[in-house]
Design a protein that fits this description.
This protein has nine helices and no strands. It is mostly helical. It has one domain (2-208): Glycerol uptake facilitator protein. Helix 1 crosses helix 7 (165-174), helix 3 runs parallel beside helix 8 and helix 5 packs antiparallel against helix 6.
């Protein structure tokens, strides 16, 4: 159970940070820095136990890459989703249950933005945290966290910058995004994770077999 607890804790603090820095009074222009750093430190904290996915799209990517089995992947996703909901409820409590105006992204630009940067995130994870050639490196956490930071600054205004179905679920529960729009995140992010696994195995077959 320790792997699932670690996945819950890491995802929880990631989604908690997203909500606390995004809902007024938030962190303004520094919000992506806080979110990327939260992910990085949680990856460092729990990566050696669970792999530090904290993201169903990453879990799908790692599964398709061959580093975890389908049963564990499903259990990781459940832990991550529950963590996202619990974090969202705590954010709402800490913020005083504010009435929020959900974002209304344009569908096609949001799909593309979420797809591209989820692909980038999963591609980075596979290369810095699962490849034999980079085994034992000390930079994996910040490489992963900074990918989210870059994505949030680059396309946050287009899609909201979730790059993570657990985050998408969390911001939906918080009221930052409409429930009717969650499919945008789920479709784009899961496809991005799947493509990252395929590209990783294609460009680095020796690492894919390790």
């Amino acid at each position: 159970m320790k792997e699932y607890l670690v996945e819950f804790i890491g995802t929880f603090f990631l989604v908690l940070t997203v909500g606390m820095v995004s809902i007024d009074p938030g962190a303004g222009a520094l919000a992506p820095l806080a979110i990327g750093t939260a992910l990085a430190v949680m990856v460092y904290a729990g990566g050696y136990i669970s792999g530090g996915h904290y993201n169903p799209a990453v879990t799908v990517s790692v599964w398709l890459r061959g580093k975890t089995g389908p049963r564990q992947a499903v259990q990781y996703v459940v832990a991550q989703a529950v963590a996202g909901v619990v974090a969202a409820l705590i954010v709402s409590y800490l913020k005083g249950s504010p009435v929020l105006t959900p974002a209304e992204p344009e569908v096609l630009p949001a799909l593309l933005a979420e797809f591209l940067f989820t692909f980038a995130l999963c591609y980075v994870v596979l290369n810095v945290a699962t490849a034999k050639q980079t085994e034992g490196n000390s930079y994996f956490g910040f490489a992963i966290g900074f990918t989210v930071l870059v994505g949030a600054y680059a396309v946050g205004s287009v899609s909201g910058g979730a790059f993570n179905p657990a985050v998408a679920l969390g911001i939906t529960v918080m009221g930052l995004s409409r429930a009717a729009n969650i499919w945008i995140f789920l479709v784009a992010e899961l496809l991005g994770g799947a493509l990252a696994a395929g590209v990783f195995r294609s460009v680095n077959p020796s690492a894919a077999d390790a």
